[in-house]
Amino acid sequence: MAEQQPTVELSVAADEVEAAVARTCAEWRLARAEVRVETRPDEGAPGQVRVRVMAARGAIVAAGDDDEDLARARQVLAELLARMGVAAEIHASRGEPDGGITPIVLDIQGLDLGELIGHKGETLAALQYIARLIVSKQAGRSVDLIVDVQGHKKRREEQLGRLAHRLAEQAVERQRVMSFEPMPANERRIIHLALRDYPGVQTESVGEGTHRKVTIIPHPR
Amino acid sequence: MKELVEYMAKALVDDAEQVSVTEVVTGPDIILELRVGAGDMGRVIGRQGRVVNAMRILVQMCAAREARRAQLEIVE
After folding, report:
1. Is A212 left (phi over 0), alpha (psi -120 to 50) or beta?
2. Chain CA centroid to CA A66, Å
3. How far is B76 from chain A, CA to nearest CA, in Å?
4. Segment A156-215, tens digit of pLDDT
5. The predicted structure's pLDDT at residue B75
6. Between A85, A123, A138, which is nearest B57 by CB?
7. What's the pLDDT at A2?
8. Residue A198 in contact with residue A168, Cβ under 8 Å?
9. Where in chain A is the domain with CATH 3.30.1370.50?
10. In this predicted complex, what is the ipTM?
11. What are phi and psi of A25, to 5 degrees?
């Protein structure tokens, strides 16, 4: 059986249809592209139109105020993706707590989304930055927000963690400083954290700008 | 692309009324000229151009898909 998506039916003046749809979208915290609209003349009231607004499949309607930020973040990302011509579903959730804050995680799911990640994740980083700015501005305070594509960042994090342990092992064995390739700040951070409690080594970032990279320094035996 | 820039700029500034985007098309090249109120310049540029650079990356992704080149400029 098809899942029942929220629907609302209103009676408005013919020239106020779009305004009524916009109000419903705002209330549900959905982008305009995430609702379907059907209209028919209101037989009971001449000049009035019956408007049926239905949330699209997969769209999540904001349920009250219990997580206003989550719904708001989802809507902003949906508005951005719609204007970028990207058809995808957004799965919004709360991530793991990180230093007292629990970030919002928006995972974009769909087909052919490689272009959204971009070279070295630069497009995804730009999308996250803009989404975070807009959501924070709407909320009137800083909102921590992670935008991911098909769990790409999560997988990359796991991969970097494994690589970090392998290189740390070699650094200790060979008593030599091992370096990673240059990486953006968020990826360097993942490595520093992964090796924070690793015995016999310390990590340090060296180099400037886009050449900055993590090195693993073994403690002398 | 114009709609994307308009949405981002309006959502980031204090005075959305003063946001306008003009598209100048020359063959495959598109120049998007963004204008905002004087008090909102900092919001669309960002520290060391971080905001405008992020907007450029998103605009370029859209352009690349249509095999075009796009340039986003903030006009005073």
Report:
1. beta
2. 19
3. 22
4. 889 999 999 999 999 999 999 999 999 888 889 999 999 999 999 999 999 998 899 999
5. 93
6. A123
7. 47
8. yes
9. 154-218
10. 0.96
11. -60, -45
**pLDDT tens digits, B14-73:** 999 999 999 999 988 999 999 999 999 999 999 999 999 999 999 999 999 889 999 999
Closest CA to B44 of B70, B73, B67: B73
Q: How far apart are CA B10 and CA A80, in angstroms?
A: 12
Mutate to test the interface with B, among A77, A86, A133 (most CBs of B within 10 A): A133
pTM: 0.73
**Which CATH number fits the domain B2-75, given the four candidates 3.40.462.10, 3.30.300.20, 3.40.50.1010, 3.40.50.80?**
3.30.300.20
DSSP character at residue A29: T
For A136, nearest residue in chain B (alpha carbons): B12
Closest CA to B4 of B47, B61, B42: B61
What is the Cα–Cα distance from A89 to A107, expressed in whole angstroms? 8
